[in-house]
């Protein structure tokens, strides 16, 4: 079982524990804000399951129908997470609207806050693990799941502050008001998750710093060639696709040109892990004099 799959399974277990704690906190207090927090945790479970399925699909090797692999499956999970975050926020706004017009005193608010606080600590630790390991494994689904959990941590902190203030002041209107503010924050974070995931589905190029690194590698490792041009990149899940045209002297043999390509591919693979490099070799008269200059 891969590390990414183990983390995805861990998210399901953590999600169940946190949901149970938050539902208990809402049940003993009747707080609209704590209910909104519990509603978001139901989304955590659903998105953790979506991430698990997406990671399993993305790990499949290329086949006849998918010769470039299944790496983009993780982006669909990340998009789904963003959409579900937004849906959860809309549900929370509805509950806050009802609570705003009929505020009431909470039952056992201190006990509810302690239980909800325990759930928040569990979420915070697991979110940090998911983001850190997801970035190391280049897994968009795990990173999106971790960032989603961070929004849940922020949500829980805001809810706790609202419930505590309401308990200390007796202004029970603060309970639904805090729920509404938290929902707005969730809407914002959900839109960011969707935007980041769509960039992968749209074959967005690698970051500028990665592109500069690839250019430097080509320039220093393609000794014997004339130039490189038409460099294009895209990322799909954990894999980066790189392609470009390499201009070689007209008299160079196919063997020598192939040796240069192998050298460049190996160097790019070391500089940017998990890459698929495609090089189109061209004769010298195809030079554009605007591409990457090859150093002797």
From TrEMBL:
Entry annotated with the keyword Nuclease: no
Gene Ontology biological-process entries: intracellular zinc ion homeostasis
Residues annotated as transmembrane: 7-29, 41-61, 73-93, 113-131, 152-171
A Pfam family hit: ZT_dimer
Topology of the protein relative to the lipid bilayer: Multi-pass membrane protein
Protein biosynthesis keyword on record: no
UniProt keyword annotations, A-Z: Cell membrane, Membrane, Transmembrane, Transmembrane helix, Transport
Primary location group: membrane
Entry's localization field: Cell membrane
Family: Belongs to the cation diffusion facilitator (CDF) transporter (TC 2.A.4) family.
Designated name of the protein: Protein p34
Organism: Roseovarius indicus
């Amino acid at each position: 079982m891969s590390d990414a799959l183990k983390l995805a399974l861990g998210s399901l277990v953590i999600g169940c524990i946190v949901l149970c704690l938050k539902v208990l906190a809402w049940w003993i207090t009747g707080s609209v804000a704590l209910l909104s927090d519990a509603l978001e945790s139901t989304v955590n479970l659903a998105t953790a399951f979506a991430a698990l399925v997406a990671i399993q699909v993305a790990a499949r090797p290329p086949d006849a129908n998918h010769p470039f692999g299944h790496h983009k499956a993780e982006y669909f999970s990340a998009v789904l997470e963003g959409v579900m975050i937004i849906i959860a926020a809309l549900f929370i706004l509805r509950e806050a609207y009802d609570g705003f017009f009929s505020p009431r005193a909470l039952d056992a608010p201190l006990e509810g806050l302690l239980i909800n606080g325990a759930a928040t600590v569990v979420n915070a630790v697991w979110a940090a693990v998911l983001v850190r390991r997801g970035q190391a494994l280049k897994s968009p689904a795990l990173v999106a799941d971790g960032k989603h959990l961070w929004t849940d941590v922020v949500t829980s902190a805001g809810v706790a502050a609202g419930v505590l203030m309401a308990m200390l002041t007796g202004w029970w209107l603060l309970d639904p008001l805090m729920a509404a503010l938290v929902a707005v924050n969730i809407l914002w974070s959900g839109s960011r998750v969707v935007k980041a995931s769509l960039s992968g589905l749209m074959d967005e190029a690698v970051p500028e710093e990665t592109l500069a690194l690839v250019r430097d590698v080509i320039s220093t490792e393609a000794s014997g060639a004339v130039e490189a041009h038409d460099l294009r990149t895209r990322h799909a899940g954990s894999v980066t696709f790189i392609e470009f045209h390499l201009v070689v002297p007209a008299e160079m043999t196919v063997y020598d040109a192939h040796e240069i390509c192998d050298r460049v591919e190996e160097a790019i693979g070391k500089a940017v892990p998990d890459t698929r490099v495609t090089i189109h070799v061209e004769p010298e008269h195809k030079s554009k004099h605007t591409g990457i200059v090859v150093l002797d």
